[in-house]
Amino acid sequence: MALSSGRGRAELACGDATAVAMWQEQMETVEHDPKPLQKPRTLRQRVCRVCLLYVIVPYLAVTVIFAVLQRRLMYRPTVADNLTVRNVGLDDHFGIDVELTTADGNTIRGWLVKGSDERHADDGRHPLVLYFPGNSLNRHERISDLREVASRGFDVLIFDYRGFGDSTGSPTESALSNDALLVWQYACETLGYDERRISIFGESIGGAVALSMWAETNPNPPQPAALILSSTFASMPQTVRWHYIH
User: Are 204 and 135 in contact (CB under 8 A)?
Assistant: First the structure.
């Protein structure tokens, strides 16, 4: 009986020692654990996290996209190597090739389309239409429009913007404005058209290009016979909101 009692005390002591050892091991694990206990997020933290993920990050992404790709969104040119009258299969009765060198060394190329011989003024010369096209395609893809205007007895002068058709360079707002004035001067001074017999036609973004000639920085704006705008936007920010935000 005494032996049994002693054995029980020994087993109890052994069990206590094991429990103490396990407790010490757990304490050491907690002390050396590099991951602190995480507190539950507050409502304010959750709201901030949602705003960051679903508002701020998407907004910044869209802003970067517009900043980097804004020219590609505004201008969608069709580029060609050679758009001379003969190279596109037209004859000399259609018109002649024209080109201008800009102040920064680029070359813009176009056509002077001849008006119908059945309709002309008493002096034998046709009035002129300056054609500023939209923000896509090139002059070759507007042949039907050019022929329609020419059939009404108007000569038509059209240039492809920088980076469009076979013109060199890349389009920017200031560059297109300068090129528009260059085209106007070419029509009046080199080709010899009376500005009172020149009508300006602007399609889409071409309307903005045409209107830029009346900027406050130009002390001698054109005085054409007419200004015709087709599908021209009121402002670029308004157009961007309409196409890409709504």
Answer: yes
Separation between Cα atoms, residue 10 and residue 20, nearest integer Å: 15
Q: Please state which CATH number belongs to domain 79-245.
A: 3.40.50.1820
The full set of domain ranges for the chain reads 1-38, 40-74, 79-245
Radius of gyration of the chain (CA): 38
User: pLDDT tens digits for 114-124?
Assistant: 998 776 666 67
Token couple for 78? 């069709």
Q: What is the DSSP string of the chain?
A: -HHHHHHHHHHHHHHHHHHHHHHHHHHHHHHH-SSPPPPPPPHHHHHHHHHIIIIIHHHHHHHHHHHHHHHHHH-EE-B-S---TTTTT--TTTEEEEEEE-TTS-EEEEEEEPPPTTS--TTS---EEEEE--SEE-GGGGHHHHHHHHTTT-EEEEEPPTTSBT--S---HHHHHHHHHHHHHIIIIIS---GGGEEEEEETHHHHHHHGGG-TT-SS----SEEEEES--S-HHHHHIIIII-
Q: What does pTM read for this prediction? A: 0.70
Cα 228 from Cα 198, distance rounded (Å): 11
Among residues 189, 212, 191, the alpha carbon closest in space to that of 110 is found at 191
pLDDT > 70? residue 147: yes
